[in-house]
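Moderator note: this is an archived Q&A kept for reference. The question asked for a predicted structure of one protein chain; the sequence and the answer are reproduced below.
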Amino acid sequence: MDCEQRVRLRKIYMTASVTFDGARTRLQQRVGICQKTEFWALCEALDRASDELKLARAALDAHIQEHCCMV
C-alpha cells in the first residue's frame, strides 16, 4: 500500500519537473533570437520553476526520510 502523502508529494514534484523542463526548453529555443526583455522574462520563469522544483524535491525527500515510506 502506497503512502498517500508520498504519492501526493511525488505528483507535485513531477509537475514541477515538467514545468522546469518546459521553461528551460523555451529559453534554449529563444536564445539569440529574442529581444532582451523576452530573454530576461524567460530567465525569470526558469528561475521560478527551478525554485519550485527544489522545494518540491526537498519536501518529497524530507517526507520519505521522516516516515521511511519509500518501498
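Archived answer notes: The domain at 4-63 is CATH 1.10.287 (Helix Hairpins).
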